[in-house]
């Protein structure tokens, strides 16, 4: 711990004072200042200054809370979209903040025809409607990326975008629909007379104590004949000990980056962490290359979706965002500061510098890094590196300050499914302050303690002050809830702010949605397998507009202080509960029945273990037909048609959605809601399950009990377990208690010769070519680096014949630092893979040689591992 509040540095910490004295110049009691050029503007202000200084009278955002938003005259491309039934909510019926656009700026200069989704993705377009394909055909990552790569935004510069001049409208239709969700989450938060974050009834926000006695070990589903899920307690709690026979099955795969708080949570909830088994049911690791997701078995869960680097890399995030900005304008997509991706955008950036001179500030970042590494703020052209790949982003030079100090927010977002899209926003998060007071002068740009808010950067500053108390607004790290309490005390409309954050979260996820859905379809076999926690870094400018800085696909869960624990402890328990872990389906029906009785889990359940039928992607022909039919309808048509004759597959989706919502804890579902159909127009194409959920929410969002009742009536008849005849249940062979017998790689000691290859396959060069300059490796096992996507043995081929163990290497050092650092691993999608190849036992090889289906089955034997 460095320094305390009494230390001389305390005066520089964001606040250590009572709320009423906080941030005086922002005080609502000081209206004169609120009108001044530099004063932060409250969301309540009706008068906003335009760039030219003239006042624009704007209606209050709260006016759009009225359910009857007048149908606006929409020139928005969405205006006539059928998703909106002719009414585009995206047209700003009510704009809260509007600064004038420079003339001629129409929201993007790239040739829209180049950016048509059809031009971008036609080659990789899957058959979206037909979900039964089990399509594991390989397609290279490069292909997909090329298709999604956009041209530069060279001529867009006329917008002169920075935080002073950018279009700053609020997408009223969508944010208003989220406003009630936001208000609900924030309504009770305030700061009490002792300066502590509290509820309105006076109870402290962070006063929860761990449960004194063990918590139940299972959470029953809301529905009959749906197995219960493991109940996760928090890192400092315990669940009731499980019967040994179940405990043996609950294996968690160790990775070097599994955060301690996750390890504690899972071990206290009955899991055993191990490196050695291939029969693991869960893991928390790095992002993997898309083809590696094929190795995830149907009883396993992994904390990523394929392709999320599309939003997790700074360069890709911008390209995806720019595509939507070009199509829908800055009114909808104006929340990421203008960015240039070098070297591609070098000419355009140079032209901008030439035009603007040194008056604008930019921030230079590596495209796939984290923790503030390699970041600098610049304002002159020679400061821009021209020899490396970087992103150069407009610097938000007038951030909202608290005690003259800059901060950013870490927002946690959970996506449990991309099709249908289900997005949850966590109610708490972190607020990270710079350790030196802010100063906009060009001469201070080199001061990283002033301009960067990363903990990794600021922790080494002599003025950094820790904050151990989650409820206190003091030191250089606060909880998000404390910030809301603080801002409320400043008379800021926090619900409006939070709903804008929710809006930017949804739009950002949508910007990567298409590619992720395509990759998931190609590489993930079960709906059970994937979920992902994202860390959104958001900064607020002096006009209280949120700006997205980046999205982390492996947000740090490292917890070094009670404050971290208060936020991340409940976060991880809620997350694991929501995504529902089941006991793997390795127990006989008799064993399950006995255990259900012993555990007193009720009569509604017929099985204790995972039921793969609930998560299958297979569809009957009738179900496929319904997908096609609904996708061809207008909203007014599908609102009724989608839910009047639910299919078993529909019911399975409802089960997942309702159970998830029921277990959401402090997560708030922001997509789907009854209003989020307003976002459908931003998606590349209509998606059946999103429409189904829209119809469901439209009918039942106000009466959940009725929704649950209707589904339960079908579940009681086991309607949801009716699967296509092609579905195969796994075989469970148990004798007197299940024994885990992991399928280990072929051992040289027990060795047989490498399998002979079928005639149509190329020889596996990796097995026969010794590494140059190195001692010849043992005959049956070699390990070397290969770039999977370009290697002549494509992953699918490799994996058909060999055990392939691969995971992205990440950047050196990320793993060791995880428990030390606050920040997250960086993401790359171009790094090499370490692939360990083992000769497969002959019997398996010959099985695989038969056909592609055999190869797909073999994928079940693959194991994912971190690079050692
Ligand atoms: P990293 O992944 O290395 O953390 P970020 O994009 O999050 O990179 O930037 C690091 C820090 O730099 C942020 O936490 C924020 O304080 C500051 N920063 C980044 N981009 C901007 C920007 N456009 N304007 C102002 N500050 C920024």
From TrEMBL:
Membrane-traversing stretches: none
Amino acid composition bias (Polar residues), ranges on this chain: 1-12
SUPFAM superfamilies: Glutathione synthetase ATP-binding domain-like
Biased composition range(s): Basic residues: 772-785
Alphabetized UniProt keyword annotations: ATP-binding, Ligase, Microtubule, Nucleotide-binding
One BP term from GO: microtubule cytoskeleton organization
Region called Disordered, residue ranges: 1-83, 108-164, 743-785
Lineage top rank: taxon: Eukaryota
One Pfam family here: TTL
Start-end of Acidic residues biased regions: 125-164
GO MF annotation list: ATP binding; tubulin binding; tubulin-glutamic acid ligase activity
Any one GO cellular component localisation term in the record: ciliary basal body
InterPro entries: TTL/TTLL_fam
Residue spans of biased composition, Pro residues class: 755-765
Family: Belongs to the tubulin--tyrosine ligase family.
Name assigned to this protein: Tubulin polyglutamylase TTLL4
Lineage, highest ranks first: Eukaryota, Metazoa, Ecdysozoa, Arthropoda, Crustacea
């Amino acid at each position: 711990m460095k320094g305390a509040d009494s230390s001389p540095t305390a005066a520089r910490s964001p606040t250590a004072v009572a709320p009423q004295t906080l941030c005086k110049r922002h005080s609502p009691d000081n209206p004169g200042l609120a009108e001044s050029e530099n004063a932060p503007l409250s969301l309540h202000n009706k008068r906003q200054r335009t760039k030219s200084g003239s006042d624009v009278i704007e209606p209050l955002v709260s006016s759009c809370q009225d359910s009857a938003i007048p149908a606006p005259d929409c020139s928005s491309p969405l205006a006539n979209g059928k998703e909106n039934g002719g009414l585009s909510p995206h047209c700003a019926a009510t704009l809260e903040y509007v600064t004038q656009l420079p003339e001629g700026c129409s929201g993007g200069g790239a040739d829209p025809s180049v950016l048509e989704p059809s031009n971008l993705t036609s080659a990789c377009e899957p058959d979206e409607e037909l979900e039964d394909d089990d399509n594991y055909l390989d397609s290279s990552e490069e292909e997909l990326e090329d298709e999604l790569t956009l041209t530069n935004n060279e001529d867009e510069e006329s917008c002169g975008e920075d935080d002073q001049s950018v279009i700053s409208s609020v997408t009223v239709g969508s944010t208003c629909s989220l406003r009630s969700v936001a208000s609900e989450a924030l309504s009770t938060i305030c700061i009490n007379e002792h300066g502590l974050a509290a509820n309105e009834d006076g109870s402290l926000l962070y006063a929860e104590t761990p449960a004194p006695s063990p918590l139940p070990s299972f959470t029953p589903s809301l529905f009959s004949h749906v197995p219960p899920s493991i109940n996760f307690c928090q890192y400092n709690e315990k669940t009731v000990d499980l019967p040994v026979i179940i405990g043996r099955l609950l294996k968690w795969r160790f990775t070097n980056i599994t955060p301690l708080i996750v390890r504690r949570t899972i071990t206290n909830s009955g899991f055993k962490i191990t490196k050695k088994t291939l029969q693991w049911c869960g893991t928390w690791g790095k992002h993997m290359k898309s083809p590696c997701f094929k190795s995830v078995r149907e009883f396993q869960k992994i904390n990523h979706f394929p392709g999320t680097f599309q939003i997790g890399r700074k360069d890709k995030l911008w390209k995806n965002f720019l595509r939507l900005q070009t199509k829908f304008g800055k009114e909808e997509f104006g929340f990421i500061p203008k960015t240039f991706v070098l070297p591609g955008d070098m000419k355009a950036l140079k032209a901008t510098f030439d035009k603007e001179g040194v008056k604008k500030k930019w921030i230079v970042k590596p495209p796939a890094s984290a923790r503030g590494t390699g970041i600098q703020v610049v304002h002159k052209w020679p400061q821009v590196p021209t020899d490396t790949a970087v992103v150069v982003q407009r610097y938000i030079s007038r951030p909202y300050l608290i005690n003259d100090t800059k901060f950013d927010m870490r927002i946690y977002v959970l996506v449990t499914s991309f099709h249908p899209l289900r997005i949850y926003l966590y109610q708490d998060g972190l607020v990270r302050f710079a350790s030196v007071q802010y100063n906009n002068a060009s001469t201070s740009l080199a001061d990283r303690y002033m301009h960067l808010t990363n903990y990794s950067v600021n922790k080494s500053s002599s003025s950094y002050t820790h904050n151990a108390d989650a409820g206190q607004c003091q030191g250089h790290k606060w909880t998000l809830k404390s910030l809301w309490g603080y801002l409320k005390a400043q008379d800021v409309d926090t619900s409006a702010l939070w709903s804008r954050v929710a809006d930017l979260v949804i739009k950002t996820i949508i910007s990567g949605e298409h590619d992720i859905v395509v990759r998931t379809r190609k590489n993930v076999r079960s709906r059970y397998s994937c979920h992902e926690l994202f860390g959104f870094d958001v900064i607020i400018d002096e006009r209280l507009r949120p700006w997205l800085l980046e999205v982390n696909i492996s947000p740090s869960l490292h917890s070094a202080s009670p404050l971290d624990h208060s936020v991340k402890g409940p976060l991880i328990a809620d997350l694991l509960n929501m995504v529902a872990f089941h006991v793997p389906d390795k127990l006989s029906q008799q064993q399950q029945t006995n255990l259900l009785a012993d555990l007193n889990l009720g009569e509604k359940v017929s099985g204790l273990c995972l039921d793969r039928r609930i998560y299958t992607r297979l569809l009957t022909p009738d179900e496929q037909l319904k997908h096609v039919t609904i996708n061809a309808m207008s909203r007014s048509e599908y609102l009724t048609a989608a839910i009047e004759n639910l299919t078993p597959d529909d019911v399975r989706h409802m089960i997942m959605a309702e159970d998830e919502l029921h277990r959401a804890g402090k997560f708030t579902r922001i997509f789907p809601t009854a209003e989020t159909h307003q976002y459908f127009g931003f998606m590349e194409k209509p998606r059946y399950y999103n429409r189904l959920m829209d119809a469901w929410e439209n009918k039942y969002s106000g009466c959940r009990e009725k929704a649950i009742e209707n589904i339960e009536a079908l579940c009681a008849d086991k309607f949801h377990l009716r699967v296509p005849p092609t579905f195969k249940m796994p075989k469970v062979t148990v004798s007197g208690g299940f024994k885990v017998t992991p399928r280990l790689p072929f051992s040289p000691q027990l060795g047989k010769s490498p399998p002979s290859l079928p005639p149509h396959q190329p020889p596996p060069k990796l097995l026969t070519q010794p590494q140059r300059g190195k001692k010849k490796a043992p005959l049956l096992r070699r390990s070397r680096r290969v770039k999977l996507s370009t290697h002549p043995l494509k992953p699918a081929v490799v994996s058909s014949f060999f055990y392939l163990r691969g995971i992205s290497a990440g950047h050196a050092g990320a793993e060791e630092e995880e428990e030390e650092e606050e920040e997250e691993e960086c993401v790359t999608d171009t790094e090499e893979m370490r692939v360990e190849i083992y000769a497969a036992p002959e019997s398996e090889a010959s099985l695989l040689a038969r056909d592609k289906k055999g190869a797909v089955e073999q994928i079940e034997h693959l194991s994912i591992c971190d690079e050692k």
